[in-house]
Amino acid sequence: DQQVKQNSPSLSVQEGRISILNCDYTNSMFDYFLWYKKYPAEGPTFLISISSIKDKNEDGRFTVFLNKSAKHLSLHIVPSQPGDSAVYFCAASALQGAQKLVFGQGTRLTINP
Amino acid sequence: NAGVTQTPKFQVLKTGQSMTLQCAQDMNHEYMSWYRQDPGMGLRLIHYSVGAGITDQGEVPNGYNVSRSTTEDFPLRLLSAAPSQTSVYFCASSPGGGYYGYTFGSGTRLTVV
Q1: Residue among B24, B106, B30, B31 nearest B73 (CA)
Q2: pLDDT beyond 90 at B103
Q3: B39 touches chain A (CB under 8 A)
């Protein structure tokens, strides 16, 4: 039972354009949603998070949108830069059980010059 | 500030051997977790701890053992290695889970032959 799903294994975007990564979840008990970025041979790095009481959170070039009714969140990167090329993981946790992060399968983002 | 340190970075084991993957953090985080990453499956939670002396099972605990005698250290023991345990293992720590997210180590790549 995949509670967090990233249905696009890969995404290719031109430098300077917007990158949109999508994530769907099935567990309505999730309260926190996070995005991680991972380079090869490194551990995931925390990017941005959002709690279920909000529908948008911004941090510089990164914005996360949450649509609770659709159980869907997305990460927007504007403008996309070559250093953004990495695997992006969506993750979620519940308030009761905040210690347990559930991850999606990941989306490999490639930014083309 | 070293963050989360994992050793070793690479390990090859024979089927049936046992070993311990080491994890240490210097951020005084209460929460620590072990994940494994397999192709196409994202990161899956093996075991976690919410403080010294307190551990619990995650999604895929079979074949692994943990203990937490100090806040800083959270070793993962493979009791009798099997080829299905070939994976990349990540240790992570957090001040409180949820919205705070986790800080990950750089991983241990384990191959069981």
Answers
A1: B24
A2: yes
A3: no
Q: Which residues of chain B neighbour A41 with C-beta distances below 8 Å? A: 106-107
- CA distance to A1, A44, A92, per residue, from B59 (Å): 11, 19, 14
Pairing relationship of beta strands B87-94 and A45-51 according to DSSP bridges: unpaired
The tens digit of pLDDT for each residue in A72-92 reads: 999 999 999 999 999 999 999
Q: How many CB pairs under 8 A join A and B?
A: 68
Q: Hey, what are B47's tokens?
A: 């075991």
Q: Is B111 on the interface with A (CB under 8 A)?
A: no
User: Does A45 contact chain B (CB < 8 Å)?
Assistant: yes
Residues A36, A2: Cα–Cα separation, whole Å: 18
